[in-house]
Design a protein that fits this description.
By secondary structure, the chain is mostly helical. It has eleven helices and no strands.
């Protein structure tokens, strides 16, 4: 009961409430106090697992499930929940590594003007061959909005030359960067080029 009150439910194994309850049950199989402790351990672990899951801490939830399934190897619902969470985590990892998904997420974050959050997704999309002109332009503007003008210039220079507004906008942005960095003549050249 002391281990239970201290919150030491299943780990470390030799000092946990589950361990002491099992030791008591090995001596007296029908020990009601030991059974109550084991039930409480199961309930508290289940509660902690669900709290971690609701917080979005999938790794902590799976770690707690590992402890729970070791402490209660015959508990089928715990094993089922463990498989579900592992599948959910694996799907999340796959989704986070999908360049198309990251491209979409980055463009959505950019549209919401969450520029610093958009940058990693857009960079990932570009690194995985999904660097369309809209992605490159959004990344360049995100860097510009977060104050990293050198990276912004680097990506604005990568916007493919064309007759559309996106290219002209990139050239005008290069003018803004040159002006911001104290080079008005270069800024003027970019502005003239953007108007052509």
């Amino acid at each position: 009961e002391d281990a239970l009150r201290a919150g030491v439910l299943a780990e470390p194994k030799r000092t946990s409430a589950a361990f002491f309850a099992r030791e008591a049950l090995a001596i007296e199989r029908q020990n009601p106090q030991a059974r109550a402790v084991l039930n409480s351990v199961r309930e508290q672990l289940t509660s902690r697992i669900e709290e971690a899951y609701k917080r979005g801490d999938m790794n902590e939830a799976i770690k707690l499930l590992d402890q729970a399934t070791q402490a209660f190897p015959d508990d089928k619902p715990l094993h089922t929940r463990q498989r579900e969470l592992i599948q959910t985590r694996n799907a999340e990892i796959t989704r986070n590594n999908d360049p198309n998904n990251r491209r979409i997420q980055g463009l959505e974050k950019y549209a919401r003007e969450d520029f610093s959050a958009a940058i990693p997704d857009l960079e990932y999309a570009i690194s995985q061959g999904k660097g369309s002109p809209d992605v490159i332009s959004a990344l360049a503007r995100s860097y510009m909005k977060t104050g990293d003008l050198d990276k912004a210039r680097h990506y604005f220079n990568q916007v493919p030359e064309s007759r559309d507004d996106q290219y002209r906008s990139a050239i005008a942005a290069l003018g803004d960067i040159a002006k911001e960095q104290g080079n008005p003549s270069k800024a003027l050249d970019y502005y003239k080029q953007a108007r052509q």
